[in-house]
Amino acid sequence: MPYTLSNGSLEIIMKGGVYENPVIQVLGFLKLEEYSINEKYRLQISDGKYYHGYAILATQLNHKLYSGELSLFSVVQINKFETVVLHNNENDRKIIIILDINIIARGKEVGRKLGNPQLWIGASASAAPAQTPTLKASPASTSRTPTPLAGTSFNTSAIDSKFTIPIASLTPYKSKWCIKARVVKKDEVKTYGKLNNGKYFKLVLCDDGGEIAATAFNDDCDKFYSKIEVDRVYYISSCKIKLANKQFNKLNNDYELVFQTDTVIAECCDNVSTLPTVKYDFLSISDIANKSPDAIIDVIGVCKIASDLQERTTKSTGKILKKREMTLVDQSHSAITVQLWGNDAEKFVITTNTIIALKGALLIEFNGCKSLSCLSTTILQSNPDLPDAHRLRGWYDHGGASADLVNISTGGGGSAGGRTEWITLKEAQTRRTRCADKSEYYNLLGVIIYTLSDNVVYKACPQENCNKKLENIENGMFLCKKCGKEYPNFKYRLLLGGTISDPTGDHKITAFNEVAESLLGKSANEVSYLLQNDNEGYGRLFDEINFKTFLFNLRDNYDNQTRLQTVVMSAQPLNYKDANSRLIKSIRALSEIQV
Fold it and tell me: Are 103 and 181 found together in one domain?
């Protein structure tokens, strides 16, 4: 098959001209070792007449290299790119930053170099037209002047809407730059320091080719916080560019911005259709199951279950955190639990049957169960206007709502395989195997008929990663036999025992701290307070959960191959719409009667 390259396009681009959507061939690529956080690659590209060895692939396109779509001899169309001049002592070098491409043909399909391209040797970059570094401006962006934020400094020489550069090309080596970015997330103001006398807030910014975090401290926090709004677009310049701290910043960027005294921000007044939006790289939930922990994930799904707002006390600082959970499902017939924290848990509206899109969630694993946790930089959208969302809605409304699903957040390895099918206690009994190294996971619709109120609260080791029960050694100190240390303090934890029932029988269960708090609707500290100060209120707490119906996710295992222990992994209030759909499906299957 013949492939036609955009002959001579590199010469036009390197001379500062405009060439829309050039078709080029990849003749080689090299990993840049100086970028250790997010890998970057330099490509050698050819238009059939000339080749150029300094084309940088934006990090959001790395997956095309990893998957093999982009390889030696691949023919691609460059949809978006930026030219940047790098200055050094000897001469200036112009590089091309590739922001978006379409693969026309994979390298193995082409199998050879096309044409006989020669190395492009032009005039030095410093002699090139003063348009570089530049990205071709849309008509709207050249016709309006940026509007400075009220109460902030504004230097028109610092911001020129015609000479913005993409976020992907920002480096600490650039002295003069301007980006045009949409604010996709804005955190609440937080404090720091022993006296909480410092304050800051964080933003997440994006354009068509990348994303970056920005932080404003103290005076800059006061100056900019009330002026910047989510989903608006701004020209931003004169920030400090520093290496991103990947312990806290999981965005796909090596760098982050810090606002300074001379930072300039002006609102963009262009037509909304020309402004950058969030770019997603969605994974199906079934594919997430194969990813390693700590991966950063974009996912879209229908909210099947949404929990109420809960409070958790941090073990290290004693601060109270707000938390919510939701279960997302998609066309891969899979489900996953997503945890929201702090401001997201309080203010992001979660309702069942809503389509939720997440960008930049952290994949975590515990006891073989995988779930997603929202970070400070995670972007959430409800019912986004995206093709993926429309396809998902069609699937869910036409059978997906009642489909059997594999829930990757409820464990694996058991005979139930983590499936969302509901079984009875009698069916669970027939599935059990007396194997000490194998756990059985299953879902069950049951009623709590009895809870033990004795010895529910215990004093546990104060260390963050240790929950061992402490022994009072009668000298004002408590001994942790696991850590081998004595402590003057402790933390309260819960261990709730009880019995659940369904139409086929009864069974004893155990719920550990987090699940017990969810069932009782109180934190361990609150339960301890009632125990010590309000016996009547303490007893009423257990009476109120008896004879309530929950959808339990349970884990069976045998202690020393003799004693069965059933642990509650989660307990969700019954979703009656889901339950009715399952009952109707069962009636159809058993009776062959359409209901």
Answer: no
